[in-house]
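$ run holo --ligand "flavin-adenine dinucleotide" --emit tokens
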Amino acid sequence: MDWETQTFGLVVPGGVVTETGIAGLTLGGGYGWTRRKWGLTCDALVAADVVTGEGEFVRASEEENADLLWALGGGGGGVGVVTAFEYECYPLGPEVFFLGALYPLDNGEEVFERWDEFMADAPDEITADVTIWSVPEHPMFPEELRGTPFVGVLGMYAGAAEEGAEAMQPLREFGTPLLDLSGPTTYLQVQSMLDPMFPDGDRYYWKSHYIGDFGDAEIETILDFCRERPSPWSLVPVRSLGGAIARVGADETAFGDRDASVLLSIDGTWEDPADDETNVEWVREFWDATERYSTGATYVNFSMLEEDEAVRSSFTANEERLTAVKRLYDPDGVFGRISPVSVAD
Ligand SMILES: Cc1cc2nc3c(=O)[nH]c(=O)nc-3n(C[C@H](O)[C@H](O)[C@H](O)COP(=O)(O)OP(=O)(O)OC[C@H]3O[C@@H](n4cnc5c(N)ncnc54)[C@H](O)[C@@H]3O)c2cc1C
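-- output --
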């Protein structure tokens, strides 16, 4: 999708790893580097072709089956098989400004505080997250730094690259970076640069919380758990929200509430299946310890489910309406749901 749209100097708001399929991404919401400017992937969805639970082929748009279009917009899927998605495109690129200032993990408190302060008044063009991780074992990074834990400010400017360089400069000055990868580059390059870090075959166990008030207590708990990561490849992105995301009403899309200030994602990532238990345990304990800061919602696409765990997501407020749409298009419950809604309810 990125390749085809960039041919015309356009983008559809997508995810940040190119193997992330647009179907699950859209059906669950979709966070990428243009989100504060143009919203979630599901906000760009204007129409879809769908095979219903009864095997009917229908079109969902504002004009036809508008309730189905609404449910596909971040409702977690399970209402039908989508055979085509039609999106609004926005002009951007080919050149954009990428931000990649990696600071030592010891500077964690300062980096979080200054980023939070900066993002409070940042223009919508700036999407910038704080991510705790380790310098990947990859040739794009200096050999002597690989494996070093860092707290990085990563982001992109959804506008002219030279404007982005100036606007994002303060985010590169939170002390002395270990490494600063920032600079003008192409949108396609930004979209695919993380691909090698998430190979097929690695082990992934990811959970999330939306947080309303982000402050000292949250920062301290996050840093405490990050200092004890059992796998150096587990990453913890704290994603900035607001901007265009927050201008869509809770009932306008099935996705639901958009009031949180950040999305905390605990992305357990490791290589050896023998380490499954330790890493899964770390993610669960981290998630439990940060639950008290949560709005009560989690992002369905970063919420690996426990068999016995009630699934919470940002669209729970829309649950009743989602159930009604599901009953209409999948009366026999052919499709499972990954949301809390079920036809058996
Ligand atoms: C490495 C990595 C990076 C990620 N980065 C991001 C990111 O930057 N931003 C973000 O928001 N999320 C991100 N995610 C999460 C991602 O949004 C989800 O994993 C999403 O489910 C991926 O969609 P998929 O179609 O590839 O997945 P699949 O596993 O194929 O599908 C996910 C769900 O959607 C259903 N589904 C798939 N295709 C269809 C269809 N055509 N019609 C109806 N239902 C369908 C499936 O049945 C399943 O329930 C990332 C995940 C990974 C593993």
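-- notes --
The first strand starts at residue 10 and ends at 11.
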